[in-house]
């Protein structure tokens, strides 16, 4: 039996806006096994990013529990949270926004290594290796975020996420802003990392076709609630709910 | 027969630097031409050039663009504006930006309709409401009484689509009309565009990076890369049997949904 890497139990997030409260995420549970790829698919506003932010502790949960390798991390902070980030990293939609514009990509990629007390020289070597792994030449270490294309910046963001040798990557619309040919290259890179490094993925996307191509299991989200889960083919070939049927039929 | 719209060897420059080079195409009445290509390939620039919206620094430096036999390139801004509405409809990627921020949606729709035909406010609202319902704006009365800032991005986009469609133009220039919309809404808009062509014979120049939308609508497809024409032909040939190397790469990168065993 593969190890259960990540487990979410009855996650809930209540937001209050304009004096009214609503559940942006409502009783969401799932497990992610080591080496697997779980997709979360849904339209805008369905709560995908809110889930990602709760898992990575960028947002507090309103209710529910989160476990990483069996240990509860629902309220992790400080040293414990740093431990969490060594196992779990995140890649966002807008890579340019996730790098400090005043620092080189190399500084950004090496930051966590330096924080771990690794020497400057070692860090530089590791950054070069990471860039190569992600399909960029080492000279990219000296470039600034605005000096590279969207696809190159996303590769650098993946390199930064990989620096701590995490077990799990949470990708929130990581390829949505990229041209299709670039998206394909990035997906191929992620696929390679999955196979070679046994990395696990939580792929968050509005794109059902992407989830079908990349994930072993998928969770369909609608207005914060899980509509159904299954393998992509189960869900796409035999949708059980009206909403999933509509979603599948809407894809051109 | 005279084509509705024809571009002949068009080159467009910004600050003297060509961003569209030697592009030619023709569009017959009722025909849909999809223009596809990656970001920066010059898609939006072509639509802007047709309507004279390139702004300072931008200019058609070679070639001609003909609409119903009249050269749009030589036309003054005032002459061009005459075409907007019942002749040529425009949909942008960000329709909100084209809406007036301080007037209600309903007032703006009524105004643009009454510029071209005799119509009461009530009739305008009814007609708008009917179309809005079909593209997922069920609560159309609220939409008509709202200001743009009170609506979501997707709702404003549909308002823009609705306004252009209500004029039943001969030609619709649409720049990424559905790119910011969820797929369920995109599907509704695509269905309405099909009906519009069927019912009113509207021809469309449909610019998008979304190959799925083009596959669903276009008769002809033009592929752009770095401002140059890579491919131009029937949708079936370009999308499903490409010969050009770049078109092949592009089509191979598209992720299509597999349904029940077949592609
Ligand atoms: N900080 C916040 N305050 C209030 N509402 C929020 C906040 N963040 C997100 N929301 C709302 O929660 C819902 C889910 O948002 P999100 O998780 O970003 O959806 P998705 O990523 O699926 O598009 C939306 O209705 C959004 O407007
Ligand atoms: N106002 C402008 N000034 C200078 N260059 C521009 C301007 N608008 C567009 N460009 C350039 O023209 C090229 C084509 O842009 P555009 O037509 O917007 O591409 P697309 O719509 O295919 O993404 C790009 O290289 C872009 O940077
Ligand atoms: Mg999101
Ligand atoms: Mg554009």
Care to describe what's here?
The complex is a heterodimer of chains A (252) and B (263). Chain A is α/β, with parallel strands linked by helices and 252 residues long. The longest helix of chain A has 18 residues, at 180-197. The N and C termini of chain A lie far apart (38 Å). In chain A, the strands form two sheets. Chain A has a six-stranded mixed β-sheet with strand order 6-7-8-3-9-10, with helices on both faces. In chain A, strands 2-1-4-5 form a four-stranded antiparallel β-sheet. In chain A, strand 9 (217-222) and strand 10 (225-230) form a beta hairpin. Chain A contains ten helices and ten strands. Chain A has a single domain (4-249), classed as P-loop containing nucleotide triphosphate hydrolases (Rossmann fold, 3-Layer(aba) Sandwich), CATH 3.40.50. Chain B has 263 residues and is an alpha/beta fold. Chain B has a domain at 95-168. Chain B is 37% helix and 25% strand. Chain B has helices at 43-50, 77-81, 105-114, 121-134, 140-144, 153-166, 183-200, 211-217, 235-240, 245-253, and strands at 5-14, 17-27, 32-36, 58-67, 70-71, 88-91, 171-175, 203-207, 220-225, 228-234. In chain B, strands 6-7-8-3-9-10 form a six-stranded mixed β-sheet, sandwiched between helices. A four-stranded antiparallel β-sheet of chain B has the order 2-1-4-5, with helices on one face. In chain B, helix 3 crosses helix 4 (121-134) and helix 4 crosses helix 6. Chain B is globular and about 50 Å long. The termini of chain B are far apart. The model of chain B has no long low-confidence stretch (mean pLDDT 94). The interface between A and B is medium-sized, with 25 and 28 residues. The complex binds adenosine-5'-diphosphate (ADP) (2 copies) and magnesium ion (2 copies).
Number of domains of chain A: 1
Class from secondary-structure proportions of chain B? alpha/beta
Looking at the chains present, what oligomeric state does this protein adopt? heterodimer
Shape of chain B: globular
- Return Rg of chain A in Å: 18 Å
Class of secondary structure makeup of chain A = alpha/beta
Distance between the termini of chain A: 38 Å
Task: State the strand order across the main sheet of chain A.
Answer: 6-7-8-3-9-10
Q: Which strands sit side by side, in order, in the main sheet of chain B?
A: 6-7-8-3-9-10
């Amino acid at each position: 039996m593969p190890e259960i890497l990540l487990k979410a139990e009855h996650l809930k997030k209540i937001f209050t806006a304009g004096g009214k409260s609503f559940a942006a995420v409502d009783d969401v549970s799932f497990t992610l096994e080591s080496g697997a790829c779980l997709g979360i698919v849904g339209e805008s506003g369905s709560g995908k990013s809110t889930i990602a932010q709760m898992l990575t502790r960028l947002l507090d949960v309103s209710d529910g529990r989160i476990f990483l390798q069996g240990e509860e991390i629902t309220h992790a902070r400080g040293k414990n949270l740093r431990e969490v980030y060594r196992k779990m990293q995140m890649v966002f939609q807008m890579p340019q926004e996730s790098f400090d514009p005043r620092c080189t990509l190399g500084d950004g990629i090496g930051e966590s290594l330096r924080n771990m007390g690794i020497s400057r020289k070692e860090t530089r070597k590791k950054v070069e290796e990471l860039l190569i792994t992600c399909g960029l030449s080492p000279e990219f270490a000296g470039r600034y975020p605005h000096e590279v294309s969207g696809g190159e910046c996303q590769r650098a963001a993946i390199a930064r996420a990989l620096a701590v040798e995490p077990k799990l990557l949470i990708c929130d619309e990581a390829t949505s802003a990229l041209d299709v040919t670039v998206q394909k290259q990035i997906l191929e890179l992620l696929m390679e990392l999955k196979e070679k490094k046994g990395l696990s993925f939580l792929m968050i996307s509005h794109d059902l076709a992407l989830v079908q191509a990349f994930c072993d299991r998928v969770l369909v989200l609608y207005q914060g609630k899980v509509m159904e889960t299954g393998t992509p083919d189960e869900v796409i070939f035999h949708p059980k709910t009206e909403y999933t049927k509509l979603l599948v039929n809407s894809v051109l | 027969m005279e084509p509705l719209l024809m571009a002949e060897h068009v080159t467009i420059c910004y600050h003297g630097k060509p961003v569209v080079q030697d592009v030619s195409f023709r569009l017959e009445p009722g025909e849909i031409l999809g223009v596809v290509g990656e970001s920066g390939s010059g898609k939006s620039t072509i639509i802007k050039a047709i309507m004279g919206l390139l702004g300072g620094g931008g200019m058609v430096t070679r070639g001609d663009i003909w609409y119903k036999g009249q050269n749009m390139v030589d036309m003054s801004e005032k002459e061009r504006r005459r075409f907007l509405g019942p002749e040529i409809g425009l949909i942008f990627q960000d329709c909100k930006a084209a809406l007036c921020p301080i007037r209600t949606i309903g007032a703006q729709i009524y105004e643009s309709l009454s510029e071209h035909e005799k119509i009461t406010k009530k009739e305008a609202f009814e007609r708008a409401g009917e179309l809005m319902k079909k593209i997922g704006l069920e609560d159309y009365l609220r939409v008509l009484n709202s200001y743009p800032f009170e609506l979501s991005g997707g709702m404003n986009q549909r308002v823009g689509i609705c306004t252009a469609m209500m004029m039943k133009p001969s030609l619709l220039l649409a720049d990424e009309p559905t790119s910011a919309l969820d797929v369920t809404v995109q599907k509704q808009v695509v269905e309405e565009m099909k009906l519009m062509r069927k019912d009113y014979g509207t021809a469309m120049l449909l610019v998008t990076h979304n190959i799925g939308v083009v596959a669903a609508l276009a008769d002809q497809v033009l592929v752009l890369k770095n401002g140059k024409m890579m491919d131009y032909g029937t949708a079936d040939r370009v999308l499903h049997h490409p010969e050009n190397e770049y078109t092949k790469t592009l089509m191979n990168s598209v992720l299509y949904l597999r349904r029940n065993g077949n592609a």
